[in-house]
Amino acid sequence: MAIALSIEIADAPAVRLTSLAHGGGCGCKLAPSVLQQLLADQVEANSFRQLLVGTETGDDAAVWQLDEDTCVIATTDFFMPMVDDPYDFGRIAATNAISDVYAMGGRPIMALAILGMPLDKIPTDMVREILRGGKAICATAGIPVAGGHSIDSPEPIYGLAVIGTCRPEDVRRNSGARPGDALILTKALGVGIYSAAIKKEALPESGYAEMIASTTLLNQIGSELAQDPNVHAITDVTGFGLLGHALEMARGSGSALVIRDSDVPLFSEAASLARDGYVTGASRRNWASYGEAVVLPPDMPEWRRHLLTDPQTSGGLLIACERNSAAALVEKIVADGYPSVRPVGHVEPGLPSITVQA
Asked: Which residue in the list 26, 28, 138, 166 is annotated as catalytic?
């Protein structure tokens, strides 16, 4: 049963939310290598016949088959602020959490709020704005925030646990990519770089608006694409960066992925900011975790690599589809409101790895 939220927080002077957190957004995620170590000796869940998707390929959500017509999708996602506006923080966190359901091919049905706040540092009105932002996105997705849980914590934390449903035949794992498939990315990269610039008050208003428009855009297209048999695999690109989530797809599918660097969509200021050093610690941790499985062009500068390992918060979907269907799918995705979508590579036979082409 959901637990209703009840918050009693002492009034305090307004503060920058990002100043209260050591990291922000999906850049807070544990490095992939650390996560692998933590999960290495966990009990396998594959003895449960109804569990269609668990932790085996690092997929976006768990999927449990109720009967021959219905699966339940369950996920949770929360993090610390990567923007200072509390309403925007709530919207971004909610959009990011709901994305996991869409990435599995499902539709969300309800959410529970996860809230941790430093009670002596954040005024009540700011917390209400965070919750209001999350509720607004859930309303856009057509679902209620049916309850949740709150604690007193040293850093501000907000997110959602989300439940969704889909038909068994519409489940889309990150492990279904096939040699010959085209790869499509639905949103531009650069969220972590923009977040780093926000912390140093170096991001122009136009850049902030660009980031908010992307990070509050629901990945609803995932549930529609999953009904197309030409779409073989879907995952959302979040804290591990494009290369990290592409590598999860490669490993789960037992194939090699090729990413065309020049075709990857970027925020308008992402390249210049990365060149000027506005990158996150998470980008470096990501590369240290999986760089040995990635082949880069020999002359690629480090700042360019940071674009591909940049931790995304509420990023786009990486889609593997039948090659001859890719152009029509891109047209459909654009028409459904994702103007940055691009074909970015393809799948090849071979050992799981990523090759980046210039």
From this structure: 26
C-beta of residue 353 within 8 angstroms of C-beta of residue 251? no
- Record the pTM: 0.91
Q: Which residues contact 125 (CB under 8 A, 6 or more apart)?
A: none
CB atoms within 10 A of CB 3: 12
Residue 167: CB atoms within 10 A of its CB come to: 15
The alpha carbon dihedral of 306, 307, 308, 309 has a sign of positive
Q: Is 71 a catalytic residue?
A: no
Burial pattern 39-73, b for ≥16 Cβ within 10 A else e, equals eeeeeeeeeeeeebbeeebbbbbbbebeeeeebbb
Tens-place pLDDT, residues 97-154: 999 999 999 999 999 999 999 988 999 999 999 999 999 999 999 999 999 999 999 9
**Length of the chain in terms of residues written:** 358
